[in-house]
Structures are given as structure tokens and as C-alpha cells.
Specification:
Layout: H1 3-31, H2 44-56, H3 64-80, H4 88-100, H5 104-111, H6 114-126, H7 128-139, H8 174-193, H9 200-216, H10 220-235, H11 244-262, H12 265-285, H13 287-300, H14 321-328, H15 339-375, H16 380-394, H17 400-417
Length: 433
């Protein structure tokens, strides 16, 4: 088969992975709720077939990061055999969560062109406003309404208040919206401020969708993800002083959009619900200091107790909700709710810490590479890095949607570093020391 035909075939299946990532929640909630558990792994056959194609045509990218990941995955699987809570199905599920999808990052980087990345970005923005409208309907619908169904039969969404849910759009749960809005914000900034060719109408509707969706999300995760992208885009001005004027104009348009939307009656109701949710969460956590302590604990708390964890851990997959359900029959978290704690307790201080370190080093390498690209007038990688970094570091890979977004956004970030954008999308006035 011709090289171009191989490339197009693999890219076609990457598109299928993306479409399933966006709409698998709709299948699990509305169309096939009786098969919600089975649909958890609906993207697994797709990613396995992509690997098969890459291996069959001898184009699988075996670089240093991927080889080290394979070694860590083998070590994690080996130590899991010595745990007291040995359960083969749980171990295989844990292996799937931690390692099965991550090689797709490097395949995306090897096969996606700049045009492919732009087309995927446009697709994500085209569904942003309809997604936000759906979220608004969910917020103001009864928590027991069919539109607020959860993944499975007789399952419903988490409530923000007594009368309102935290609207997840087409995703199974609210975390999917936070992850989707982060990547959408990256493409909005790039298309509006850096890309010379693009639909102004699409950008305008996308900004409106981003503002409305963030407002009605009742989710600090969503607001934080969008805020990180915006802050990083403003910091990137240091490497492109000539773009300050356009950035300020874009910021003024965003502020004007927010002002106009906030004056709508529905927006006032959403804002009131959001404030109530923030107040309740703040009281439960001990105010702003408690929220910051929660973030700090997520990152560092488990390292203090790492000497108390058995060398082989407690069992790969045991820390995921699905793994716990297989072992106890209940959906719960047996080890830790946060990602770093889950990995360390599951695989122990050697294999677990190696996996955490691998993710940190990949994140750091992407940041340095993206900064170098930014200094040379190419801003897409740093914007995608801003969306991917929190997920790569602490996103819970045991959640299917979070796993999918972590892989896909990181894959787009790495792919953007491996392509050559057209000259018109490169800023000619670059950083000088």
C-alpha cells in the first residue's frame, strides 16, 4: 500500500477515535443506557486497530518516550502479580487505563499534518455553541429529566444545588465538559489571534459558546481549564510584543461578550446557581485556603507516605471506580480519589513513581519544546500544552473520557510540534533578547 494511503487510513481511524470520544457519553446516557458498562471501552477496539495498522505497515513510532513507557508498563504488570489482592480482570483493566491508549499520542504526532490539526480544531469549535445550548437546557431542566440522565439505567447527574444539576452536555459526567472546553479555548485563541485564514463567524459563535458554556457549567474545573489557556496566551505576548494590540482587541471582544451575556435573564439565573455552588464547596473545603490546600494535597500529599506503600503496591486497577466495582460490587474508590495517589498505591513506589515521573517529564519536555516554537513565532503548541498539561499530570486515567482527552490533547500538542505550519501563520516579528 502507498505511504499516502497508509497515512490516510490511520488518520481516518484517529478521526473515529475523536468522534467516539465526544459522543460516547450520548450513547451511554440516552441511546444505549443498558450497555453503559460495555461502552466504557468502546474506543479500545479503535485504538488497537490503529496500532495493528501501524505495526502491519511497519510505521509504528518507537521513540525514547514510547520505549520507556513500554518498560514501565511491563514493570507495572509484573509487580501486580505479587499483590495480595490479585484479580486478573482488575489488573487487565488497570493496565488498559494506564497504558493501552497512551501510545496513540506518538502515532498522532507521526501522522497528523497541520491541515489535519486545523480540521480537528474546526470540528471541535463547530459543536461548541450547540453543546453550550444543550448545557443551558440541562441546567434549567429537572434533575430527574431524561436530558439529565447519567451513564446507565436509573442513573442521574451530580447536583450543583437541590434544583439544578452540573450540566455535562453530551458527556457522561461534568469532567468531560471541563476537558473539552480547555482544548476549545486553545483553538479559539489560535484561530482568532494567530491563524491568518479562518472563519470569523465560527470564531464569533465559538466565543459566545465558550462564555455561555463556562457560565452554566457550574464547574470550577471548566473555569480553571479555560483560565489557564487564556493566561498562557497572555504570557506568550512576552515572545511576541507586536501582537499585544491584537491580543488586547480580542480580550476586549471577550469582555464585551461576557458583559452582554451576563445581562441576559438566563445568565443571571445561571450565575446565581454558580455562586451558590461555589459558596457550598468553599464552606465544605474551608474557604479559598481550603481549596488551595486541596490542590496541593492532590499534587504532593501521597509522596509523604510513599515509604508506607508496599513495593508491589496494592494492585493495578484497584484504584479505579470500575476496578473497585469488580472487586466489591460497589462504585467507589478503594485507594485514593486523585490520580497520583491512585497510581502510587496501585503500583507501588517503584513502578508507580516511574509512571508519575514519566508523565511529568513528558509534560516538561512538551513545555520546553512549545516555548521554543513560541519564540520562533509559532503559538499553537504552547496553547495546546496549556490545555494538556493539567490532564497529563493529574487527570484520572481511570475515567474513560478523561483518559481519552488526555491522550488526544497531548497527541495534538506533540503533533503540532512535528509539523510545519504555513508562513502566514507564523509571526514574523519574533522575540529578541
Amino acid at each position: 500500500m502507498m505511504e499516502s494511503a497508509i497515512r490516510e487510513r490511520i488518520i481516518r481511524w484517529i478521526w473515529i477515535y475523536l468522534i467516539l470520544l465526544i459522543f460516547e457519553g450520548a450513547l451511554r446516557k440516552w441511546l444505549l443506557p443498558g450497555y453503559a458498562s460495555v461502552l466504557l471501552i468502546i474506543r479500545d477496539p479503535v485504538v488497537l486497530f490503529i496500532y495493528f495498522l501501524a505495526l502491519h505497515y511497519k510505521v509504528f513510532p518507537l521513540g525514547r518516550f514510547l520505549m520507556s513507557l513500554i518498560i514501565i508498563s511491563i514493570a507495572s504488570l509484573w509487580v501486580a502479580l505479587f499483590t495480595d489482592n490479585f484479580n486478573l480482570y482488575v489488573i487487565l483493566y488497570g493496565f488498559r487505563c494506564n497504558f493501552l491508549h497512551l501510545p496513540l499520542i506518538f502515532i498522532m504526532a507521526s501522522f497528523l499534518s497541520y491541515r489535519n490539526i486545523m480540521m480537528m480544531g474546526e470540528f471541535l469549535l463547530k459543536i461548541l455553541l450547540p453543546m453550550s445550548i444543550l448545557m443551558m437546557v440541562q441546567l434549567f431542566s429537572s434533575p430527574d429529566s431524561w436530558i439529565n440522565a447519567g451513564a446507565g439505567i436509573e442513573v442521574y447527574q451530580l447536583r450543583a444545588t437541590v434544583d439544578n444539576v452540573r450540566p455535562p452536555g453530551v458527556f457522561s459526567y461534568i469532567t468531560g465538559i471541563g476537558e473539552y472546553f480547555a482544548i476549545a479555548a486553545s483553538f479559539i485563541v489560535y484561530f482568532s489571534l494567530h491563524r491568518k485564514k479562518g472563519s470569523k463567524l465560527l470564531i464569533t459563535f465559538s466565543i459566545i459558546g465558550l462564555v455561555i458554556g463556562s457560565l452554566v457549567s457550574i464547574s470550577r474545573l471548566t473555569i480553571s481549564g479555560v483560565a489557564i489557556v487564556i493566561v498562557v496566551s497572555l504570557l506568550a505576548l512576552f515572545f511576541q510584543p507586536s501582537g499585544i494590540r491584537r491580543h488586547l482587541m480580542g480580550l476586549m471582544i471577550l469582555i464585551l461578550s461576557i458583559f452582554l451575556i451576563l445581562n441576559l435573564n438566563l445568565a443571571q439565573k445561571a450565575l446565581s446557581t454558580f455562586n451558590q455552588r461555589i459558596e457550598e464547596a468553599s464552606n465544605a473545603e474551608g474557604g479559598r485556603k481550603g481549596y488551595l490546600n486541596r490542590i496541593s494535597d492532590t499534587l504532593f500529599r501521597h509522596f509523604k507516605n510513599i515509604d508506607e506503600i508496599p513495593w508491589q503496591g496494592y494492585g493495578l486497577g484497584m484504584g479505579t471506580a470500575a476496578g473497585a466495582q469488580m472487586m466489591t460490587g460497589e462504585v467507589t474508590y478503594l485507594l485514593a480519589e486523585d490520580e497520583i495517589g491512585r497510581v502510587l498505591y496501585e503500583s507501588g513506589p517503584i513502578a508507580g513513581l516511574s509512571f508519575v515521573t514519566w508523565r511529568f517529564i513528558l509534560c516538561l519536555w512538551l513545555m520546553v519544546s512549545a516555548l521554543l516554537a513560541c519564540m520562533n513565532g509559532y503559538h499553537l503548541p504552547i496553547l495546546l500544552w496549556a490545555a494538556s498539561a493539567p490532564m497529563l499530570l493529574i487527570s484520572q486515567l481511570g475515567r474513560p473520557t478523561s483518559l481519552g482527552f488526555t491522550v488526544f490533547i497531548t497527541g495534538l500538542c506533540l503533533a503540532s510540534l512535528c509539523v510545519r505550519p504555513p508562513k502566514e501563520d507564523i509571526e514574523t516579528q519574533r522575540f529578541t533578547a
